[in-house]
Design brief:
The complex is a heterodimer of chains A (184) and B (187).
Chain A (H helix, E strand, L loop, with lengths): L7 E6 L5 E6 L3 E6 L10 E2 L6 E3 L7 E12 L6 E9 L2 E4 L15 E2 L13 E9 L7 E9 L4 E6 L12 E2 L2 E8 L1
Antiparallel strand pairs in A: 2-14, 3-12, 4-11, 5-11, 6-10, 6-12, 6-14, 7-8, 7-9, 7-11
Chain B lengths: L9 E6 L3 E6 L3 E6 L10 E2 L6 E3 L7 E12 L6 E9 L2 E4 L10 E2 L2 E2 L13 E9 L7 E9 L8 E6 L16 E8 L1
Antiparallel strand pairs in B: 2-14, 3-13, 4-12, 5-12, 6-11, 6-13, 6-14, 7-8, 7-10, 7-12
Classes of the chains: A mainly beta (184), B mainly beta (187).
Chain lengths: 184, 187
């Protein structure tokens, strides 16, 4: 409400919030070695969803990561998982709980939701997750997505498609999305 | 700090980022034909969540869609999926990968099981995020469609029970839920 004799409307534009994303319908088969421990480098990067760049405008800003993955493991999807990695100025930091005391357990940021536990040929799994990161920087931050599995010596993950991949309506094709947004 | 020669009161109108959503606890039974191909019109609209409107402030703005779906397929939930459609100025565009899928069934997202081998009292949930680039400042409409690969190679259709289980008995072993579809502009 104005208090003298007139008021000048003034538009205030809210500063743009940093936002970045990678979205792909690329089809890929990614071979993932069995995870043997945090020093064995068995994590396998998903290149189609990695390299997500964002630059916070203040050190206090949080980065909200959201990931949707569509695809199918060739075997034992309940042994598959995803971990995030942050890179700032060449310093790489895993964002899963391996930094805490979890012993020899497999660190995860998220797991796959099954669509049919008895089928590893034509029923893709989906993975949806959210993570809030505190990079405490105004430098450019890179985020990467990695697959882990602890089932067999090597397991294939079929991104955005099915293991069988047949060209008929019983085999799905999908889209995967990775976003980063600054808040606070 | 005061301006010269005196301070003029100002009405401040903040320009927020466009946001829109639909959320429903309505229950419904939606009959979905077996998907036979992209030209057959077998996709079935979820009317309770469709018609989501948003108007980007800039052509460069992205629209982030988020969907949570609660409900149960009558059979074979692993054959069920969701596709998004965008409508601008009457022009309809599917946002799934059907342009490159061949005869495969195009999807934006799949359902996650809560229990295998039960299709009467254990609803599935579907969660997904999608980024759209409508490249417009016109009003954009988003719709949500169900697809199903079929009960069998000969079955004509499958029912989807929105926000409830198939049996929907009035007892604590049967769930009722909420489904949400949101759109926000970024960038």
């Amino acid at each position: 409400m104005s208090d003298f004799p007139f008021s000048i409307p003034r538009r205030v534009d809210i500063p743009t919030i940093p936002f970045s994303y990678i979205q792909t319908d690329d089809i890929a088969t990614i071979a993932v070695s069995k995870w043997e421990g945090p020093d064995e480098s068995d994590e396998k990067k998903i290149p189609q969803l990695s390299g997500l760049l964002i630059t916070p405008t203040s050190e206090s800003q949080k980065v909200i990561l959201q990931l949707h993955i569509f695809g199918e493991w060739a075997i034992n999807p309940y042994h598959g998982s995803v971990s995030f990695k942050r890179i700032v100025d060449g310093v790489e930091t895993w964002l899963d709980p391996r930094r805490t005391t979890i012993g020899s357990r497999r660190p995860c940021n998220a797991l796959f939701a099954l669509s049919n536990p008895a089928n590893n040929d034509s029923t893709p799994e989906s993975l949806n997750t959210t993570l809030v990161d505190l990079p405490n920087t105004t430098k450019e931050v890179t985020y990467e997505v990695y697959l882990l599995q602890a089932s067999v010596t090597s397991a294939n993950f079929h991104l955005n498609g099915t293991s069988g991949g047949s060209d008929n309506t019983q085999h799905e094709r999908g889209i995967s999305t990775f976003t980063a947004e600054c808040k606070g | 700090m005061s301006d010269f020669p005196f301070s003029i009161p100002r009405t401040v109108v903040a320009q927020s980022f466009p946001f829109s959503y639909k959320q429903t606890t309505a229950t419904a039974t939606i009959n979905v034909k077996k998907y036979e191909g992209p030209d057959e019109g077998d996709e079935e609209k979820i009317t309770q969540l469709s018609g989501l409107l948003i108007t980007p402030a800039l052509e460069s703005q992205k629209v982030i869609l988020q969907l949570h779906l609660f409900g149960e397929w009558q059979t074979n939930p692993f054959h069920g999926s969701v596709s998004f459609k965008r409508i601008v100025g009457g022009v309809e565009t599917w946002l799934d990968p059907r342009a490159t899928s061949g005869n495969r069934r195009p999807c934006n997202a799949l359902f996650a099981l809560t229990k295998d081998n039960n299709d009467n009292s254990t609803p599935e949930s579907l969660n997904t995020t999608f980024v759209d680039e409508p490249n417009t400042t016109k009003e954009v409409t988003y719709e949500v469609y169900l697809l199903h690969g079929g009960v069998s190679t000969t079955a004509p259709s499958a029912n989807y029970y929105l926000n409830r289980g198939l049996q929907d008995v009035n007892a604590e072993g049967h769930e009722r839920g909420t489904s949400t579809f949101s759109a926000k502009c970024e960038g």
